[in-house]
Specification:
The protein is an alpha/beta fold. The chain contains 13 helices and 16 strands. The strands form 3 sheets. The chain has a 10-stranded mixed β-sheet with strand order 7-6-5-4-8-1-9-10-2-11.
Length: 544
């Protein structure tokens, strides 16, 4: 067997086909932050830095046409957890340190539903869906929480060292934020400012303890792991600093990959791999504005943006393909055939309906869910998927099978800080066929009026659905009084951490992940190819 499905068989189709047990699985959902499509080895063999993610793909299924719910942090997370578009949840853009609102109480998350099914529910990582009590993770279905309340660049941190561009992230430096990043355990701040260099270590320790506890208690669990990396500022444990011999971003990829290895080793070591569904993905594409500290969305580079409008990012925060087409791997030994690949159009909003079908609960019928159980997409399939604009609260782009359609484009600053000629309406819409033009270089010009009428109907139907069904509202106001502060009498609200890190995490470099990094990285030919390709990509992006 080749390991590839030429037709879009998907995760749940395989699960329904092969499942032999009535027990509900444990579910581990790992989500990197700002990780691009080409930042993992399975999607980009010239990238040698993610052997454990490759290991996950080898025992699971890799999706090549999977999309985040939004091209930016907060609405992406809301869409994943609720299965609903931003136009329905009301969560269009990011919450910040002084935000009053959050993910509305009327919206129900994966954790909410699984808790009702007897699952233990935990989140270890970045929440970014509200900081006040009623919008806290513990108010949205999670039993335990350990992590950051918002992005790691929305406040200052300790100097470990950390790396950013165009702004400082270290408390006390002139261009840094005046508030500091807190680290929470449940509702308590346990460290402020956060030490980002030890954050992934602490996440690993907390995650492994959570898994062990609930395996020993024989209780199914849902563990949501939204990592801080590789969102800037980049910061790693000293073991990974300059470990790649390429750059800070690549060092960070190695630490992310090591974390994935730690989680897999724990699951396999406890003998529960066949009872555990493990998912790996990203919240959106790379943040091009951060130059060499950002990743790659190759081959989905949005060439037309630069050719027609002079410059501008086509990654994170944009509706160009590279802003929301991200890695996705799912593994469940014995249920998902190993080493398989799906090219079906799929979305983060599919995860909740898919889990509902696996576990066997019904979603409420008082609202529309924009995701679908993936088993419904058996070949031949046809699907539309709308991509929200993060600024203008409109659905300016959509996918229809292999077609990418733009009613307007709204670029964001590229590495040079340029957006080209800026926002542009397109009537008739721009249309690209990604099956032959993944770089979105040449719009189609030979389309029929029937094609455009069909596209218009798709758009009219989604607008009618949004306006005619249940929607939530969000308070977007802010107040400095809600900014998290451990001790207001200390500069930067400083307080020390009481969290001990599991010493078993600090093993000899690479040993616990089951991979010999020094042997791997001795193959400098592959690394040099990667560096050459990355330099070539940035030179291309910086042409004005």
């Amino acid at each position: 067997m080749s390991g590839h499905f030429r037709s879009p068989y998907l995760l749940l189709f395989l699960i329904c086909l092969h499942r032999v047990t009535s027990e509900t699985p444990n579910i581990i959902l790992i989500m990197a932050d700002d990780l691009g499509y080409a930042d993992i080895t399975p999607n980009n063999p010239s990238n040698p830095f993610t052997p454990n993610i490759t290991r996950l793909a080898n025992v699971g299924m890799r999706f090549t046409d999977y999309h985040s719910a939004s091209p930016v942090c907060t609405p992406s997370r809301a869409g994943l957890l609720t299965g609903r578009l931003a136009q329905r949840t009301g969560v269009f853009h990011n919450f910040g340190p002084s935000s009053i609102g959050g993910l509305p109480e009327t919206e129900k998350t994966i954790a909410h539903f699984l808790k009702k099914e007897g699952y233990a529910t935990g989140i270890v990582g970045k929440w970014h869906l509200g900081i006040t009590e009623k919008f806290h993770p513990l108010s949205h279905g999670f039993d335990t929480y350990f992590g950051l309340p918002f992005s790691n660049d929305m406040g200052c941190v300790t100097d470990g060292p950390v790396y950013n561009v165009k702004i400082s992230s270290v408390c006390g430096e002139p261009t840094a934020w005046t508030n500091s990043i807190p680290l929470y355990e449940n509702r308590d701040i346990v460290e402020q400012p956060a030490n980002l260099n030890q954050l992934t270590n602490k996440y690993a320790a907390f995650s492994k303890a959570f898994i062990r506890q609930h395996v020993n208690e024989n209780q199914p669990f849902f563990l949501y792991l939204p990592l801080a990396q590789p969102h800037v500022p980049l910061a790693t444990d000293p073991r990974f600093q300059n470990a790649s011999r390429v750059g800070h971003f690549e060092d960070t990829l190695m630490e992310i990959d090591h974390f994935v290895g730690e989680i897999l080793d724990t699951v396999y070591g406890l003998g529960v791999s066949e009872e555990t569904l493990v998912i790996f993905t990203s919240d959106n594409g790379p943040w091009e504005y951060k130059c060499e500290l950002s990743g790659s969305h190759f081959p989905f580079v949005g060439e037309y943006q630069r050719a027609a409008f002079g410059s501008g990012s086509t990654g994170k925060m944009t509706t160009w393909e590279g802003g929301h087409r991200v890695p996705f791997i799912a593994s469940w030994p014995g249920q998902i055939e190993p080493g398989t690949v799906s090219n079906a159009l799929s979305s983060a909003m599919d995860i909740l309906p898919s889990i509902a079908q696996i576990v066997g609960f019904s979603l409420p019928n008082d609202r529309v869910f924009d995701g679908v159980p993936l088993s419904f997409l058996q070949p031949p399939s046809s699907r539309t998927l709308f991509i929200p604009d993060t600024d203008l609260q409109e659905l300016w782009a959509m996918r229809w099978n292999s077609y990418k359609i733009y009613f307007a484009t709204n670029p964001k600053p590229d590495c040079n800080g340029s957006t080209g000629t800026g926002f542009a309406y397109h009537d008739p819409p721009l249309v690209f066929d990604l099956s032959v033009d993944p770089a979105e270089s040449t719009p189609l010009t030979n389309l029929t009026m029937d094609f455009y009428r069909t596209v218009d109907k798709f758009r009219d139907d989604i607008h009618k659905s949004i306006e005619g069904t249940f929607k939530s509202t969000v308070d977007w106001s802010g107040n400095s009084d809600v900014i998290p502060c451990c001790d207001s009498h200390n500069k930067w609200c400083a307080c020390s951490s009481s969290k001990a890190v599991d010493p078993s995490f600090f093993t000899e470099f690479g040993r616990s992940s089951g991979y010999n990094y020094s042997t791997f990285l001795s193959n400098m030919i592959v690394t040099l190819i990667y560096v050459m390709l990355k330099l070539s990509f940035f030179n291309h992006c910086m042409i004005v």
